[in-house]
Design a protein that fits this description.
This protein has about 90 residues and is mostly helical. Helices cover about 55% and strands about 0% of the residues. It is built from 3 helices and no strands. It is globular, with a radius of gyration of 13 Å. The two termini are about 20 Å apart.
């Protein structure tokens, strides 16, 4: 398998994990297949709020060992895809 294919498969795994965790932790009334990768987390997308944002930060720490700092660009929480890119870039090696 090429490096590109490996990266694509790894991204799919992260997207699946994120969607599944969001649905379970935030009690989102959608299935994974109903959440597009480019769905906005806030506003007209999943309609999350500041309490949900805090829960996402907890999810990042517990699931991926990522501790978000104030210096991190908050745009990682714009869409599911942005969140996946942030995870892939910042997660701790397993």
């Amino acid at each position: 398998m090429s490096l590109i294919q490996e990266n694509i498969e790894a991204r799919k795994v992260v997207l699946h994990q994120i969607k599944t965790e969001l649905i379970q932790r935030l009690h989102i009334q959608k299935t994974e297949s109903q959440i597009d990768d480019d769905t906005a987390l806030f506003g007209n997308g999943l309609k999350l709020d500041s309490v949900d944002a805090t829960e996402i930060l907890v999810l990042l720490d517990k699931l991926y060992g990522i501790q978000v700092s104030e210096s991190d660009d908050p745009s990682f929480m714009r869409t599911v895809n942005n969140l996946a890119s942030f995870v892939i870039k910042n997660r701790k090696p397993q």
